[in-house]
């Protein structure tokens, strides 16, 4: 049974015959970043489908749902997990004002329907390859803050304005970007737009994104506050105006201990590792027990067209995921 909900999540259900059955959801996302690889997201959805295909003749005590979440990456609105947050009724007024597509909040479904959530994903890092292990089990998904910032100075002639008399917005942004690199947390400026963006004009305005992550929420927040203070000081010193807006803040999401131990058991005591990347499991964990499997990927490359996995590793994760579903079915028999 297939449907698309109001938030453009694609949902397939292998229905259980049991009355009042809840849903075991296997999910991942179908959207990608720009110029992405093939596996970040879609692999987890295909694995869910493959599990459903394998188990279609089993009589399961729960509905088995495969969800291809929409807009997990936050490419469009700079705010992640839109599909899963809509499904769980977690979109706030600010999200709804931002999103052009109207009515997406209708995707909300009762949390009591949800039994558990499983997600399989490429690791997007080098740890499993280094350990020579095909699979890993996720302990927690690192929290993240996404900030939008801008310096406004004054555009002017590149040839005639003395260096001591400029209000160069890009130079200010550059100071903050280099400071972010030394913050002691994982921090990335992935976008920087310069206005007017002309080679012989002093930049009058520079807007940039900032993505900050850490497993410790307090450390991430302190790092963001420190960088904000530094940016304000740069603006004062250079005579610029600073705008600084946190557009998203997601706390670190620990995975469910019991479900995680099931995944470790079915994955040959696969190593435990934290996830620096975000996943819909971080949101689903707010509604039901959630756990994640990682598949080794080549050289840890991701968010890049060179993403690559081995067929044998995908077979191993498919086996593990199938066994996990059967073990959960036994537990609910
Ligand atoms: C999603 O891929 C993220 O971690 O940014
Ligand atoms: Mn991604
Ligand atoms: Mn992903």
Overview of this protein structure:
With 333 residues, this protein is an alpha+beta fold. Helix content is 30%, strand content 27%. The chain contains nine helices and 16 strands. It has helices at 42-54, 82-87, 93-98, 127-131, 169-181, 217-238, 257-266, 281-284, 311-331, and strands at 2-4, 10-14, 23-29, 63-69, 114-122, 135-141, 143-152, 156-157, 186-188, 192-195, 201-202, 205-214, 241-250, 253-254, 272-275, 290-295. Strands 1, 2, 3, 4, 5, 6, 14, 15 and 16 form a nine-stranded mixed beta sheet that branches. Strand 3, helix 1 and strand 4 form a beta-alpha-beta unit. Helix 1 crosses helix 9 (311-331) and helix 5 packs antiparallel against helix 6. It is elongated and about 80 Å long. The model has no long low-confidence stretch (mean pLDDT 97).
């Amino acid at each position: 049974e297939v449907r698309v909900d109001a938030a453009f999540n694609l949902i397939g259900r292998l229905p259980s015959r049991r009355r009042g059955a809840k849903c075991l959801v296997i999910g991942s996302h179908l959207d990608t970043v720009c110029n992405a690889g093939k596996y970040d997201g879609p692999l987890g959805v295909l694995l869910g489908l493959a599990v459903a295909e394998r188990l279609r003749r089993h009589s399961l005590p729960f509905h088995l749902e495969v969800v291809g979440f929409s807009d997990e990456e936050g490419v469009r609105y700079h705010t992640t997990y839109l599909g899963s947050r809509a499904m769980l009724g977690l979109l706030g007024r600010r999200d709804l004002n931002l999103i052009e597509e109207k009515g997406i909040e209708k995707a909300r479904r009762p949390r009591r329907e949800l039994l558990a959530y499983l997600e399989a994903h490429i690791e997007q890092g080098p740890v499993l390859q280094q350990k020579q292990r095909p699979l890993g089990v996720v302990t927690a998904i690192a929290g993240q803050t996404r900030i939008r910032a801008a310096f406004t100075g004054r555009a002017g002639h590149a040839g005639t304005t003395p260096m001591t008399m400029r209000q160069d917005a890009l130079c200010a942004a550059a100071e903050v970007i280099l400071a972010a690199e030394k913050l002691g947390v994982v921090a990335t400026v992935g976008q920087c737009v310069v206005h007017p963006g002309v080679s012989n004009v002093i930049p009058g305005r520079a807007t940039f994104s900032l993505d900050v992550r850490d497993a410790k929420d307090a450390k991430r927040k302190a790092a963001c506050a420190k960088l904000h203070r530094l940016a304000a000081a740069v603006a004062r010193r250079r005579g610029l105006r600073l705008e600084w807006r946190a557009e998203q803040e997601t706390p670190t999401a620990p995975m469910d201990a019991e479900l995680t131990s099931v995944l470790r058991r079915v994955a040959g005591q696969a190593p435990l590792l934290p996830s620096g990347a975000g996943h819909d499991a971080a949101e689903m964990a707010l509604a039901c027990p959630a756990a994640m499997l990682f598949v080794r990927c080549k050289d840890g490359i991701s968010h890049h067209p060179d993403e690559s996995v081995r067929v044998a590793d995908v077979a191993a994760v498919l086996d593990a995921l199938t066994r996990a579903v059967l073990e959960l079915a036994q537990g609910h028999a």
